[in-house]
Amino acid sequence: MKKTSLLLVAGITACTSFFVACNKNDDPPMPTAMTLYDSLGGTAMVTDPANTSMQIEQGRLGIRSVVDSTIFVIAADPELNPYFATLLAEVTAGDLSGFQMLSDNLTDFLCVATGATNFTYDGLNMVDAHDPAKNPRMSGKADDADFDQFIADVVVGAQKNALPDYLIARVGALLETLRDPVVQQ
Rounded to whole angstroms, how far apart are CA atoms 7 and 33? Predict the structure, then answer.
């Protein structure tokens, strides 16, 4: 009888321990889905090739690299470069300040839009940024064909940086959400 009582107490203790150990409140948190920013390199710090004494988040560096490549692709694109006449005139004259400002604004915008938490975008909203009446750096209003060409140029810029196709598709889907505020004619 004493042996049976001891086994019963041991069994109850084991079952109680099992059920307490399986309490859902003690389960490890479920991993959250990776943001596009995380997929582009996230917050891992790397040396900035533009300034080797500085560190930069790998996600930001990746986005900046695609942005800069895309600006050069657009500059060579006869369908889109007329929209950037002011910028192209500045660069031709050796003034890179407008290029740097555009690169910084687009990089900030895309960092925030892809899920980065360490940056803010302080530039114009998309409607004002693409309205020549509110942004004198724009030389005209874009139509759907222009926006399609812009996305095609971003794809080329991303490919120049060896971005995998699945990430290019995610960036393209993100950009597509901006069609309505960007296309103004």
Answer: 46
Rounded to whole angstroms, what are the CA distances from 34 to 18, 56, 156, 183? 33, 20, 24, 30
Total number of residues shown for the chain: 185
Written as six digits, the tokens of 53 are: 């004494």
pTM here is: 0.81
Tens-digit pLDDT profile for residues 97-120: 999 999 999 999 999 999 999 999
C-beta of residue 36 within 8 angstroms of C-beta of residue 112:
no
Report the phi/psi class of residue 115: left, alpha or beta, with left for phi > 0 and alpha for psi in -120 to 50.
left
123-127: long-range pairs with CB below 8 Å, 24+: 125/181, 126/178, 126/181, 126/182, 127/181, 127/184
Tens of pLDDT along 25-61?
555 555 568 999 999 999 999 999 999 999 999 999 9
Report the CATH number of the 36-182 domain.
Answer: 1.10.490.10
The Cβ-side half-sphere exposure at 64, using a 13 Å CA radius, reads 18
